[in-house]
Amino acid sequence: MTTYDYADRPATLLAKRPGKPDQPLVTSAAYLPSGPLSSLTLGNGLTETRSFTNRYFPSSITLGSLLTWNYSTDNVGNILSITDALNPAGN
What we know:
single chain; mainly beta
C-alpha cells in the first residue's frame, strides 16, 4: 500500500502480507521543489540521501554509513563516472 504527498508523489510504502503484520518498506520520502527524490527513509531506519547540482544533475547518493557514491556528469547530465567514497575498489 502506498501513500502520496500533496503533489501525488509516493511518500510511504507498506507491504501487505497475508496473516502477518504489514511490513513498512519506506516510512518517508522527501523531494526537491521541482520533483527529484532527495531522501528516502527505509523501513529498517536507514536513510538514503541524494544530492543534485543546481541543474538537478545527480552529484551524490549516500545510505547511512553503508554507501557513498559521487557522480561526475557531462554538460547535459549524463553520468560519466561513479566514485565510491567508502570503497575505492568499487569505482
